[in-house]
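New to this. Help decode both lines:
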Amino acid sequence: MAQEILRKEETLAMRKKLIGQSCRLFYSEDPVKIIRARGQYLFDENGKQYLDCISNVQHVGHCHPTITKAAAAQMDLLNTNSRFLHDNIVLYADRLAATLPKKLCVFYFVNSGSEANDLALRLARQYTRHEDVIVLDHAYHGHLMSLIDISPYKFRKLAGQKEWVHVAPLPDTYRGIYREDHPNPVQAYADTVKDVIEDVHKKGRKISAFFAESLPSVGGQIILPQGYFSKVAEYVRSAGGVFVADEVQTGFGRVGHHFWAFQLQGDDFCPDIVTMGKPMGNGHPLACVATTAEIAGAFTANKVEYFNTFGGNPVSCAIGLAVLDVIEEEDLRGNAVRVGAHLKDLLIKLKTRHELIGDVRGVGLFVGLELVTDREKTPATEAAAHIVKRLKEEDRIVVSTDGPWENVLKFKPPMCFSMENAELVVECIDRILSDMKASDLRLEKEDI
């Protein structure tokens, strides 16, 4: 029996009545009601097509037939508690292991990036027997209480910083404390972590882990300077802690040349724990923690069984395997390299014509466009919101903002995003920026 499709106004009224109001919609003043999707395109209740630059969760494209076919076939055969012996979980773990450094060889499957980061915190504490955690400023690691506590992006708006949490500066070479003109920003930023560790020790406390997104997203699509992780890991491990790389946003080939974003830091760098989530299941809830045999052994030694009812179930792992197949068969990493570079080049050219663009940064299909009102880098928050609104209303392109001041347009589209898509987006941003510039000139003349 076909489900009735409600009128948009009815859906919105029911949502306001039934769903917690802290669960915000995109374009909350005038939401888009999406009823179907395919590839990098979304379709509303009237059949209008929108280009999706937001959905990094639908990693290989919305409703990819290979994924839906694998899910349906396994669902028709078996889906059960992951404590029953089954092939899919081990076959999937083996495929994941082939993408990672050899020492990351033990896997725990969960349902979300938040669950993965919470488990990583437990693993780190069990292994090190220490409590304290160092995080980067503006970081976001998930919505569980344990992760709100280590996410400055959230805890600064809530109860504040716990005594066991320590915040190091975000290595942002555009607007951070050490910028492009610094002789050695890598060492300078790594030394800030060293200073934090020394302060922690002075308080009689000890570090269990350094948590970092391999490419900070909420912080503003930041590309960390190469070599930073290696130096930080050296300091953290010397203090008895472990290095946790949060790949929930950026794993599975989004950066193109590498399967994992932490690999951008150099061949000699390997985290002690890697967390992954969003893109794994192409929209299906699937996440994972990968770690070393030594850390996993310490977790087992506490004699407390760990199980996750749904994590790693046969359907989830069938979907995960299908996602890996599509990434390989459709050369989506190669596509990320080619299309991402084209998008970035076009945006850099746009920067030469529009003073509002302060910085263009990114790698693969992880790109940020930072807007500023002046050469002092004052965030152009209102301008960013204006561009996002007009892209949706005039061009049916969905883009969102991020960064501490919400002045960074972020691009994390499905990996099937095309050259033509990139050109269309930049062409539309160019038109809107030109219109804004013309409007400002008109206002100046009227003032005169």
Notes: The longest strand covers residues 207-213.
